[in-house]
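> call design_seq(struct)
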């Protein structure tokens, strides 16, 4: 009897839960879990968490302190349920400030360690801006692992690999959204999906040149995108799509396989080359800016909620 697709996927790809919902994590038993401001907001609004969120807010010195306290609270709970990494995001407000990103990352790691969660269990999530990548390079040198998020084009992926980051999260679904808005009649199914093609190119480049950076496809719109990337290092998937995979018993063939690495490595991108490549890619420029704004919108809502709870 054929196993369900989620079980088949777990045999070739590390499955990561894209949620702060503890019940969903218990149900699907992923290896890792990722969070972001939007998911932390959802978790903080759950009725069962309300009293604890109020307690954390009142104990905090200011809203930034409260934000980090809540993020680490949720992340610590998740760390007890998964054997691998928990990703916790630095404020999107700091996406263009290397020094402030470093300070906030250090604060998050210190909070986790005070709760008995070692830094080896945490991935600090940072937006894939030039400044964010510089911060991630320094953090990796300090033994703090990073997850570079809001990644939409090849230059971002190359700069992240050059910096030696632990993991990148290319956003499949948001790339598809951009292309569908401009060409709604096009066939973007399966391997034709521009987000899928982007991840495949990054995966093949990393494996072909021996980069250690892990590729984790993210932001999926349907299970077809996930199936077209089966075999990728990691895939972070929402509870809804995890459920659909768990209920499908059709065969799931492997789509991506590692290849032998070349002996030569590409020249690292400098800042000018990186910024020019981003400037030339309207989709990546627009989706990166939009993603930062969206995370900040939800962070402001969380700030307002915590501000009310502090009173």
């Amino acid at each position: 009897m054929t196993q369900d697709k989620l079980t088949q996927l777990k045999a070739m790809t590390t499955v990561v839960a894209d949620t702060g919902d503890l019940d969903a994590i218990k149900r699907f038993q992923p290896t890792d879990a990722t969070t972001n401001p939007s998911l932390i907001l959802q978790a903080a609004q759950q009725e069962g968490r309300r009293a604890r969120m109020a307690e954390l807010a009142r104990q905090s010195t200011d809203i930034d302190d409260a934000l980090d306290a809540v993020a680490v609270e949720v992340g610590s709970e998740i760390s007890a349920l998964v054997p691998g990494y928990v990703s916790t995001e630095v404020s999107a407000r700091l996406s263009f400030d290397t020094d402030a990103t470093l300070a906030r990352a250090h604060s998050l790691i210190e909070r986790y360690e005070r709760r008995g969660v070692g830094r080896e269990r945490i991935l600090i999530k940072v937006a894939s801006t030039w400044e964010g990548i510089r911060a991630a390079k320094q953090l990796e040198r300090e033994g703090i692992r990073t997850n570079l998020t809001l990644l939409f084009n090849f230059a971002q992926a190359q700069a992240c690999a050059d910096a030696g980051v632990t993991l990148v999260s290319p956003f499949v679904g948001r790339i598809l959204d951009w292309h569908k808005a401009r060409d709604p009649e096009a066939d973007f199914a399966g391997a034709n999906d521009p987000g899928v093609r982007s991840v495949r190119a990054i995966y093949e480049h990393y494996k072909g040149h021996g980069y250690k950076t892990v590729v984790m496809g993210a932001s999926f719109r349907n299970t077809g995108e996930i199936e077209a990337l089966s075999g990728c290092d990691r895939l972070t998937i929402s509870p809804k799509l995890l459920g659909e995979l768990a209920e499908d018993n059709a065969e799931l063939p492997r789509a991506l396989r590692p290849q032998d690495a070349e002996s030569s490595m590409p020249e690292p991108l400098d800042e000018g080359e990186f910024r020019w490549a981003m400037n030339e890619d309207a989709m990546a420029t627009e989706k990166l800016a939009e993603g930062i704004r969206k995370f900040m919108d939800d962070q402001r809502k969380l700030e307002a909620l915590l501000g009310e709870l502090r009173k």
